[in-house]
Design goal:
By secondary structure, the chain is mainly α. The chain is built from 18 helices and no strands. GO terms for molecular function: guanyl-nucleotide exchange factor activity.
């Protein structure tokens, strides 16, 4: 019944528009309008809603255009603008100057992109501007992506970061705008920052391949095997065991065993994902090869590792 009423109302609207423009005889338009009025009158008698009136109201609202945000309560206007990114917010400030420059909005822009900065925890002066801070953070990130050391020095010179490995590690951990290649170069040089960055990861109750993927999403693995990759896997192995003491007891894991399993997972990932390898490693072969290096690990556990790589993919994909 609702669909029928809607179609009649729409037909009445079309008939009126077309009759006004001379496309339909007036008599035909009057008959259609009369039928629609009867249905609407019957619908209103039953306590329903006049669909035709709703359509007219909707059309009149569409003709009025967008609502002026300055006419709304400030809390509602700020909430609407909070869904914009920084570029769109700057454009909005050209129309709604006071709303577009609101400090609350720019504070959200800063913290959504750069989750941790030392300056967030300080008592800020009354003339402090989060909009200006956003510009500085953006400038510093671009500088970092060109030269990591200069980028960090820029943040420190502006008072955005404290000169402490833990603060720098938190900034890196909660920021997603830094180029991963430059980040890899910086962490290879700053092992003190790397140590703090590893401790920020929580691998509790995570399956080993999934934890390794999360680790390499924040700290990208080098393209070739070398001393830096060995350092990363060693640090990951100790952190994984520290976060999962129950698993260490039940499965018999140790940092050395996790170290061996990590290399096995990386090699298996390359074997299964590389188009140049025609004869892929089977599950039986993986279990046999891994058990030779880590004898205390059960075959079932190693088999689950193989299944995870086979179904989900590479543990160190960029």
């Amino acid at each position: 019944m609702g669909q029928v009423l809607w179609r009649i109302a729409r037909n009445q609207q079309f008939q009126q528009e077309y009759s006004e423009q001379g496309y339909l005889p007036r008599e035909c338009g009057r008959r259609t309008a009369a039928a629609a009025d009867n249905v609407n009158h019957h619908r209103q008698g039953q306590g329903g809603i006049d669909i035709y009136q709703l359509l007219k109201a909707r059309k009149s609202k569409e003709e009025q255009g967008f609502i002026d945000l300055e006419m709304l309560p400030p809390e509602l206007s700020i909430t609407i603008l909070s869904y914009l990114n920084a570029t769109d917010l700057c454009l909005a400030s050209c129309v709604w100057q006071d709303l577009g420059k609101d400090e609350y909005l720019w504070q959200g822009q800063c913290k959504s992109t750069w989750g941790h900065c030392s300056i967030y925890n300080r008592r800020l002066p009354s003339e402090f501007s989060y909009r200006k801070l956003y510009m500085q953070l953006d400038e510093g990130s671009l500088t970092f992506n060109g030269n990591p050391n200069e980028g960090i020095e820029y943040f420190m010179s502006k008072g955005i970061l404290n000169d402490h490995p833990e603060e720098v590690a938190k900034f890196i951990f909660y920021t997603r705008t830094l180029n991963w290649k430059m980040l890899r170069i910086y962490l290879d040089e700053r092992r003190d920052v790397l140590d703090e960055l590893v401790t920020l990861h929580n691998f509790s109750n995570q399956f080993l391949p999934n934890a390794l993927r999360e680790f390499f999403r924040h700290i990208h693995a080098p393209e070739e095997r070398g001393e830096y990759l060995e350092t990363l896997i060693t640090k990951f192995s100790h952190r994984f065991c520290a976060c999962n003491p129950a698993l260490v007891r039940e499965v018999g894991l140790s940092p050395d065993a996790v170290n061996v399993l990590c290399y096995s997972l990386i090699l298996l990932s390359i074997d299964l994902s590389s188009p140049h390898v025609k004869n892929k490693m089977s599950k039986r072969e993986f279990i046999r090869n891994t058990r030779r290096a880590a004898q205390n690990i059960s075959e079932d556990f190693v088999g689950h590792l193989y299944d995870n790589i086979y179904l989900i993919g590479h543990v160190a994909a960029s």
